[in-house]
Amino acid sequence: MEERLQKLIAAAGISSRRHAEEMIAAGEVTVNGKLVTEPGTKADPERDHIKVRGRLINSLIQEREKIYILLNKPRGYLTSLADPEGRPLVAELVPHTLGRLHPVGRLDFNTEGLLLMTNDGDFTNFITSARNRVAKVYEVKVKGVPPEPAIERLRRGIKLEDGVRTAPAEVKKVEESETNSWFEVILHEGRNQQIRRMFDAIGHSVTKLRRVRIGFLYDERLAPKQWRRLMPAEVARFMRGTQKGKPPAKKKSSAKTPLQAKKRPSSKEMSRGAGNSGRRG
Hints:
CATH superfamily of the largest domain: Pseudouridine synthase
Strand content: 15-25%
Structural class: alpha+beta
Helix content: 10-25%
CATH class of the largest domain: Alpha Beta
Radius of gyration: 20 Å
Order of helices and strands: EHHEEEEEHEEEHEHEEHEEHHH
Largest sheet: 8 strands, mixed
């Protein structure tokens, strides 16, 4: 059956669909020996010989096991598969025996927290597409105490320095001191360094940023640099799209949010943590 090349490349575990489109446009893909540069081109892996950077990928499409990883990314790691500057990569935190796994979305270099990795392009597209409204929840520490009108601007959507306006976001103040504030921010989109740029736009820079939940997924048992496989039921729950990024139903008396479920570090502890720092967050 014919399918779009970017989907087939993602199915082979070579890259996400978006990156596959870039490889096609860059002239790195051939079908039956002919160069293809149009991302919308279709091919049939049962009939056509598909090569990426000279490597035949037909067998990868047929035989690949789909793998889904939840990683607790520490600060100081790049959410990428390669870096010309030689900085540490998240790919180095999972065993090479799992094969080539690409990050689902991104967390910037100085952001920590939960990051999904997979070789399933369809899964990546579902999680990262804004229309599916898979919530990403962050703990944010900022300098100073932003006034409520400024926070309301973030909730409504704010114009960033490049002229792009963000989608509405959920922003809740959790704690404040004389010099810092802590917020819980929930996004359904993932622009580059979005949360840092949002708070910069109101004059309060982010000093610490951690992603604590993706959709219904949060796992406080994962220490930084640790990872676990997703259970089949977790993958199926995402792909059914029934939750649309909403957290599990709460019981009025006992259920807790990720921020409530653990003891919040003191202002002093978080300031010390920020001092040791070096997404799309």
